[in-house]
Specification:
The structure is a homodimer. With about 130 residues, chain A is mostly helical. Helix content of chain A is about 65%, strand content about 0%. Chain A has a domain of about 70 residues: Multidrug-efflux Transporter Regulator, Chain: A, Domain 2, CATH 1.10.1660. Chain A contains six helices and no strands.
Chain lengths: ~130, ~130
DNA sequence: ATAAGCTCCGTACATTGGTACGGAGTCAAG
DNA sequence: CTTGACTCCGTACCAATGTACGGAGCTTAT
């Protein structure tokens, strides 16, 4: 079996080589030893770790938070839970923001739709200081 | 009445002086002429324009979009409306994203709460590649 | 008239998650 | 053995929205 070089795993994971190097620089994954001759090759653990990272990103965690999660591996569930609770409350707060925004935009747009004078716009009016 | 220098309007609008300069560089507001001697002073229109910008930001528009909105002043309501519709759909999409996220986190957390073995964590497990 | 405080200007830095570039080394195929 | 592809490494750059800094000039109060 041929050793897995960086481009192999990039292809396998469908991410950019540069992204892998970026994770290495960030300390999210270990950079494999560079052999006396030849290129570095990447063990299974690195692949798994990157998959972990990508899944956590889909859950909305930042790379810093993921680093935290990774270090919490084999640590009390309570700590992981706390981080997730925190993230959940941030998500809820952001949703509330967006809901306010949605409401405001809907109201403005409904005014526009009722407006038959195309030369002035209720949205512009609402933004204009009195 | 004393002329309004940049720090006066910054205080009045409760924003940073640097932010005003930043808007000038971005072309969102005009930089007043520099008088033969003394400092620039800022007319009412600039204040109003910055208030417009701030309100539009609260509606979730980016500075680029706001520049667009400002140029649409006195232009057909239809164009403004289109921009607002576009923004509204982006808001709804983002909300849907967050809702998925919220659901996923809630489910994981409820597994944590049901978990009485503090040495392993369902969240970590779920992120771990099989 | 001098010091304190403000303005002006250009530039660099911060954040987050990467992407791009350039040169040197290395490897595999022909 | 040469050519093309790949790696390695450091550094610079992207978006978006500001914030910070440093030095020089100007104003205002004492």
């Amino acid at each position: 079996m041929s050793p897995r070089t960086i481009s192999k795993i990039a292809k396998e994971l469908e991410i950019n080589i540069e992204t892998i190097r970026f994770y290495e620089r960030k300390g999210l994954i270990d950079q494999p030893e560079k052999p006396a001759q030849g290129y570095r090759h990447y063990p299974d653990e690195t692949l798994d770790r990157i998959r972990f990272i990508k899944r956590a990103q889909e859950l909305g965690f930042t790379l810093d938070e993921i680093q935290n999660l990774l270090s919490l591996n084999d640590h009390p569930c309570g700590q992981v839970q706390a981080l997730a609770e925190y993230k959940l409350s941030a998500v809820k707060a952001k949703m509330a923001d967006l809901q306010r925004l949605d409401k405001a935009l809907e109201e403005l747009l409904s005014q526009c739709r009722r407006n038959d004078d195309d030369t002035h716009c209720p949205i512009i009016d609402s933004l204009q200081p009195k």
